[in-house]
Protein 1
Amino acid sequence: MRPLLGILGGMGPLATADFLTKLVQETPANHDQEHIPYLAYCVPQIPDRPAAILHNGESPLPYMLKGITTLRQGGATAIAIACNTAHHWFDDLERLGELPIIHIADAACAELARLNITTGAVGLLSTDGTVAAGFFQQRLSARGLKCVISTPEAQTTLVKPAIDAVKAGQLAHAHTLAIAAVQQLASAGAQAIILACTETPLAIEFADHSLHAHCIDATRALARACVAWHQKHS
Amino acid sequence: MRPLLGILGGMGPLATADFLTKLVQETPANHDQEHIPYLAYCVPQIPDRPAAILHNGESPLPYMLKGITTLRQGGATAIAIACNTAHHWFDDLERLGELPIIHIADAACAELARLNITTGAVGLLSTDGTVAAGFFQQRLSARGLKCVISTPEAQTTLVKPAIDAVKAGQLAHAHTLAIAAVQQLASAGAQAIILACTETPLAIEFADHSLHAHCIDATRALARACVAWHQKHS
């Protein structure tokens, strides 16, 4: 069976387009025909993921499963999810969706390994939901890395407003907030900061900044993992 | 039935991501849930469109129909095609695909009307295939507008290499070539130039240039037409 990447997007829509752009950028190709074939399901009418994890809000799981089912019926042979927080439901999505899923946190950790970051502390710029889900902390711990998270105050006054600003298309405002959050993580000892919410790379990359060099873009890492998956299955 | 936009992409892949980004940018939304739900089929393993039109190459029609069928079976209620040249097959695609298609040239002409361009000459930056297909010229003529196309030499030395450079990810090189092609169309009397190949906005927008103000981005125009379609059907 020819590989067809199924992309579960819409969480949020600009982050999905950013992932698709990075998927193209990371693919070694000189012609259209060398690029990765994909089917993308981008239906943003889905319950908020952090609210479901933290406040017992409506579960997005049935909505995500509908997306994966649509992708599988359309011929997808593996899934990438352009949302970090959604990976809280990874096990259920893979089991009930009946397709392998390329895990974004595994992809980000592969980037850490590639950069020879094997000791010390790594920062996590993510939603409250991803922090509470714990799958990044578990992976970092398994690699002997400490995990630095934002203070509750920074989550409330910087991280969440930055993510919401991206979702509202206000990238300049998002940039200011996200850079401040990254600075706080760096001050707390993080030698590298994983941009572990798919809105955050859009905020950080909106303008040049010296802190870029310390950021690891989980979205781009997922794109690279998808390219590796495609090369393996072609 | 809730509207779900089906996007036929892959021609080429970066142009598809550009269209999806512009679709988000053009949607008035403050939250994820207000964005347009879509399903995108991006399978670039498809015969070259200009070669099929001009040199009797293999037809891309069955490949595009497979894409539209996949989108329809996935729940799509209308189609947008992120490739100008593919609209050569518009009638067959709409009839055999059994879904309405939002025509990119109609969208671009709506932009001309919005900008009050109702007389004079309009340039066409497009593939040889789109020029030969004639659907832009017909629409401009029906509006009383002259159509200026690139010289055969410019098509060979500027336009096609610019498009190929975008497909190979070489945007700086593509920019230089595409700006030269736009300059030639402006010198030939075009007061506005339609970027009528989905690779060309990526080339033009790569860097600032005074000619931007004279360019009409057919990709963004299609995104706006999709937003209008969604508002009408929601």
Protein 2
Amino acid sequence: MSDKFARRMGTVHRSFIREILKVTADPEIISFAGGLPNPELFPVSAMDTASREVFAEIGASALQYSTTEGDVGLRSIISKRYAKRGLDVDPSSILVTTGSQQILDIFAKVFLDKGDKVVIERPGYLGAIQAFSIFEPEFVTVSLEDDGPNLEELEAAFKDGAKCFYAVPNFQNPSGVSYSLEKRKAVAALLDKYDILFVEDDPYGELRFMGEDLPNVYSFCNKSSILCGSFSKIAAPGFRIGWLVVKEKEIYDKLVIAKQASDLHTSTVAQAIMRRYLETNDIEAHVDLIRERYGRQRQVMVEMIAKYFPAEVTITEPEGGMFLWATMPEGVSAMDLFDIAIKEKVAFVPGRPFYVDDSGENTLRLNFSNSDEAKIAEGIERLGNTIKEFLK
Amino acid sequence: MSDKFARRMGTVHRSFIREILKVTADPEIISFAGGLPNPELFPVSAMDTASREVFAEIGASALQYSTTEGDVGLRSIISKRYAKRGLDVDPSSILVTTGSQQILDIFAKVFLDKGDKVVIERPGYLGAIQAFSIFEPEFVTVSLEDDGPNLEELEAAFKDGAKCFYAVPNFQNPSGVSYSLEKRKAVAALLDKYDILFVEDDPYGELRFMGEDLPNVYSFCNKSSILCGSFSKIAAPGFRIGWLVVKEKEIYDKLVIAKQASDLHTSTVAQAIMRRYLETNDIEAHVDLIRERYGRQRQVMVEMIAKYFPAEVTITEPEGGMFLWATMPEGVSAMDLFDIAIKEKVAFVPGRPFYVDDSGENTLRLNFSNSDEAKIAEGIERLGNTIKEFLK
């Protein structure tokens, strides 16, 4: 059979993280491995009401085929929310997608030829690596520092014939790192200088619980760039509703074609319920609630790490998002640690899958959004003790 | 900008049909152009109830991320429905997809290298041509006769190094043609003989309103084949829920990887509501209702065509599905007819986009699912008179 598979499938692998999640399904395990929002914060009752109203008011049309571009009212709400943040985005430049994951797929369809150089952060978002890999690009990685990418490396990569740069400038998955204002501007200037396509993935941008909100890199770009958003982290991921914003109509039209070929359009019902929810609820107040809760969870995690992790393990201290990144001394393996930690009933994601060059062996990702404060305290104590034993 | 697009985008075009649908939005136009189910038959109230029950009973978990493979309960129901039709399909071999359109995309990702020979029916389903085109195959077409593909042409195509065959053996879109039992067996034998991958797209199979139900070609295949199903035509398309069935685990696993890279998973909410609907309603009775209604609509269309179309226009007489196919004398253009018909306030889809070789100029597709009997009678009279005038 395997002789029939397309060549591209040789380089694409099942998500390692999804495999790990199966191991961590044991309810006794305190898991920092997943990347899930806290379901206690899902607006279940408001969505129930929204859904009743949709069925009562628009009925059959919520169940019919709809346009590839997406619900006009939903796109208008997305546009207004950007306006509040000072970003002028016309609804006609917004394309609703089946989660923001789909943006990576259709971007790759429209832009990536085999062998094209795609610049990503090191470590980088696994879902993007997976989606792009299907189209067989060459990945070029740039170190992520505490305030964003290393600019010399970024410029060198751009100079060396890169096609595009994919980045998560706000509270990155996996590292939790955010770009400083200076680096945002510097990145935009380099993108313009070398005329590099830019995909700014921003699922976590609204989840800032300390520090000051910063403009998207997109807002500083003059040339081709795509800004990706999602309702997964501010409302609920089960709808699979994301969106992209793009400046040029020519690019928008090509992305629509690719989306049409992929799944015709995003669920009409899901879009209708989400739109109704947004029309009749205060999403900003809801996001405040998430921010407040995740902020406390992150605080407990950082404090407990300070208390229980050995000093030679360093961590990022994210100002938002859902993840924190830990680095152990060189030469030790987070995979080996994982096997021991599972026996101690605590889980995380080893960092290596986030590196396309098989480095990062000594790193790990910790999720703080999906556990309550008590679990975080207990889990980090367990993990800290396990690491101490492991590093002896 | 255009220098940045991937080479593949040169061969992929925006759906011509979707463009046509914009022209036909005028409410005075009686349109047989679309491919929509009749929204009067959507189970709005049952879906409303199902959705209330989902929010009340499983709440947050219906809004969370879920598995790429799809809801276990939903897959089990799909499996049981196949069992009733005599097809033994284990739930673990079913992958839930974002509409059956997505199957075409992930199939192409997993199997199609540039230049691979993909055999399709002539005329062929436009959505498949669009989805496959992204992966730059070479299309090889086989004439569709009244009882299925021309077997000599099919064998010649298989002999000539084809990679796969994509077909819609039940009430094909666009032609309305169904394969006879003999041709189903013969096609399966040829697929086995030449070890050709097979994708059997079956969105309309349950919509038979006359004649006898026939087994899927899939049920006669021993080698690699993928059977595609959808809730779009038997429940509602707005959920975007389709599924595929495959015999080999190795293929299943690769398709899961490709699906994961495409949109992580299909909407959890949409799957939960559909599952609940299926658990608490008699879908078979509902499908009977659709069949009965579409059967009557098709009957009116065929009768009115007999009455108003000139004798030199031939049509298929489908035993199910949503479409009927008309062929005018050689040398006339359905595109020219379209421009005149629009002025007479009646619309259809010119057949040419369904041919990859730019033939089929004299053909047209007529949809009978989306108009009531009175509209069909009036629209066909208008169209018949227009054609008579046009062919003078």
